[in-house]
Write a structure and sequence with these properties.
The protein has 295 residues and is an alpha/beta fold. It has helices at residues 2-23, 25-32, 58-73, 91-96, 156-168, 180-188, 199-207, 236-252, 254-263, 280-287, and strands at residues 34-39, 42-43, 47-49, 55-56, 80-85, 102-103, 117-119, 124-133, 148-152, 173-177, 194-198, 215-227, 230-232, 266-267, 272-273.
Amino acid sequence: MHFKTSVLAAAALACACISAQAADTLAKIAETGKITLAYRESSVPFSYINGPGKPIGFSVDVANAVAAEVKRKINKPVLEISWMPVTSQNRIPLLTNGTIDLECGSTTNNSARGKDVAFAINHFYTGTRLLVKKSAGIKDYADLKGKKVAITTGTTNMLVVRKYNEEKKLDMDIVPAKDHGDALLLVEGDRASAFAMDDILLFGLKANAKNPADLVVTGEALQVEPYACMLRKDDPQFKALVDGVIVGLMKSGEFERMYTKWFMAPIPPRNQTVGLPMNAELRANIKAPSDKPAL
């Protein structure tokens, strides 16, 4: 009985040590000489690809700034930066199991996700709106009664729109899409009347669409939510580093310059401009940085 208890205690201690080691991201990076950063393939202008395996965007710039500070912090002049594509469905599992070290894309910081992961300082605020063809004459959600609406699987938008659909009894037919690019194709191909997603992502997709003039972002914004970089829970040292980088960018003015670069100027690959000025929520967050989640 005593021996069995000792074995169980030793096993529990070993598990605790492994868990603590897994949560120490800086130690993991120092030991392996590599940091693995996640990116999204079509979250324009935050994180998207401009050629095979070449992620670019506002959030990619933030992630690169974090990698530079990690390199300085652990004194690794030669640090391998590995980029891994993720989706709405697999980004959290890949983070929690240690495959990726940081995800800076277009991820909403909310309380439900906060049970599994940690979030850095918020770097954007957005609401769920609609991308439709101008020729469809759709102005708001009420115009979608009984129609097909595309939404990316694994997003908070799916929950928000489903709830709104039930409350307003619109009988919308929600069509799950693998990623934002797939949802856009459904609208362009008339297989869905609208794509419901974060407004900024819709503006970005429209800017880089084959025929931007054929599309319009419309509808009231449902539930304004913050975006933030995502990291593993219970790793205060790494969170402090990531937060420090983002706050530093905000206080130095570099954050606003980055915003202008990606939101107010022509961006690859089509050199179109998203054209979305910084909103009041984000300006307030620059003055008083917060990692407060959406409910």
